[in-house]
Amino acid sequence: MPVRVSLRARHRNMRMKKMAAPKSSSAEAPSAEALSSRLEELPVGSDRIEELSDTENEYEDIGTITQAEQAHIDYLESVTIPIRDEPETESSKAQREAFEDIRPFLEGNPNDFPLNIFGLPKLQREKHAAFLKSALGDYPSKFAPMDAARPWLLYWSLQGLTALGCDISEYREQVTHTFSMAAYPTGGYGGGYGQYPHLAATYAAVLSLTIVGGTDAYESINRRAMWHFLGQMKQPDGGFTMAPGGEEDIRGAYCGLVVLSLLNLPLSLPPDAPARKHGLTTFLDKLGAWVSSCQTFEGGLSAAPGNEAHGAYAFCGLACLSIMGPPKATLPKHIDLPRLIHWMSYRQCAPEGGYNGRTNKLVDGCYSHWIGGCWALAEAATGRALWNRPALGRYILAAAQFEDGGLVDKPGKRPDGYHSCYNIAGLSHVQHNYVYDEAESGAGSVLLDAPWRWKTQGRYQGDVLWGEDDVVGQVHPIFVTPWGAAEECRKYFEAKEGF
Ligand code: FPP
Ligand code: ZN
């Protein structure tokens, strides 16, 4: 019977490179004899042997393993959980198969990237910058269905580029013009000209304008109309919908507060806000309790009460509470922190080192931010963070960099702006420290000023796996914008009288 030896076992003696799947005929398949002779290389244990059909991929011998590769292999073995649950389920099978695809990238260097002094691929800064810049250009017609996501495409690229250290001032005018066209006359932003406003598009638009900065960008925002638009989103139960008549979820709570805080808008609800008819008078009324109702039995936060806990929604919930006030006060008031920390800690996958977004799902580079970004917020409330930063840095550098630029969910996937932005943000969370400092003066005003009391506190001081060339810029832990950009925006609007 044809067998394939696991790459890990064969790595002990050789480096292997995956070859394209052969167009199989039994004549092309490796002989059973040749394969069975390789079995002798294997340590005892049937888990190292998989039965395969004749048409499965084969591996090519590309030489002896290096010292660095051996160190990676040993490391992976040391963090591999030795027990596997029985029986196999769809989830455990998907998990095992995904790891087999990821493993060569954690053990070796299939993309042949230059390595840093820790034997990991260097951050491919220029390639990623070129990828993100190309995402700011024209798109072929097949991208038409992405039209409503245009604000996101801009935000992901601009944020990714600034974190990579690129100057984005050349885009300022164009970005300002694009969003002037996407602004809806009654407030908020749609995906483009004439599109109905949506809170996700509004969030991405306001962040993009914050990133490019400058008077023209700031002044292009109709803050009074925005206040009215947000007033339409506020719901009688305390949450926010994403669009007029749209779904109410925790993204709305976060996006709404980001916009209120950055633009220094009044906290009182506009007179025409429907929630006023239900006795609510401010945007914060019942909000903490509503976020609290999104915490699930697992400890994480879901999109809306009764749904499954998920990393992206957990970030939205914690960031929303961290805008409402000092995390040390708002998080323990509304969240069961021990259960949250337990759930967050379990999202880090071993041996991959990256995060998944929910129980029994696969590691994915975007959660480097969605969960990685939760740690600074949770730490500001508890003083403790239970995450392995070097392991996440390893996943991002070794497994999430695409050969030709851009970053990915996992090896085998194509790069995109979303995964590029949030892997890079994750790398930033791994590398930099932030603390909430009550004594910081904030941006000035007392309205939603908690986000301005953060300060940077140097680099992560533990074991690092990155060199100076692999370090990315600091990002604001709540807004996910370049450090300093959000504050500048807020200060600009604080200096203005009224709208
Ligand atoms: C599941 O996808 C993904 C979600 C349920 C959440 C997506 C939400 C965001 C990215 C948050 C957006 C944030 C803002 C600020 C608007 P999946 O089932 O493909 O992935 P999985 O298997 O990793 O769960
Ligand atoms: Zn993802």
**Which fold name corresponds to the CATH topology?**
Glycosyltransferase
Count the helices. How many? 20
Terminal Cα span: 76 Å
Give the strand order of the largest sheet, numbering strands 1, 2, ... along the chain: 1-3
User: What is the total number of structural domains?
Assistant: 1
Question: How many β-strands, per DSSP?
Answer: 6
Strand-pairing-aware structural class? mainly alpha
Run of helices and strands = EHEHEEHHHHHHHHHHHHHHHHHEEH
The distinct ligands, each listed once, are: farnesyl diphosphate, zinc ion
Q: How would a textbook summarize the main sheet?
A: 2 strands, antiparallel
- Proper CATH architecture: Alpha/alpha barrel
Unreliable segments of 5+ consecutive residues:
1-14, 20-57
Q: How much of the polypeptide forms β-strand, as a percent range? A: under 5%
Protein name: Terpenoid cyclases/protein prenyltransferase alpha-alpha toroid
Domain Prenyltransferase alpha-alpha toroid: 123-479
Keywords: Metal-binding, Prenyltransferase, Repeat, Transferase, Zinc
Biased composition (Basic residues): 7-20
What's the SSE blueprint?
Blueprint: E1 3-5, H1 7-11, E2 16-18, H2 32-39, E3 49-51, E4 59-61, H3 67-78, H4 90-107, H5 125-134, H6 150-163, H7 172-182, H8 199-212, H9 215-219, H10 223-233, H11 250-262, H12 287-292, H13 311-324, H14 327-334, H15 337-346, H16 367-370, H17 372-382, H18 389-399, H19 417-431, E5 432-436, E6 454-459, H20 485-494
Antiparallel strand pairs: 1-3, 2-4, 5-6
The structure holds farnesyl diphosphate and zinc ion (ZN).
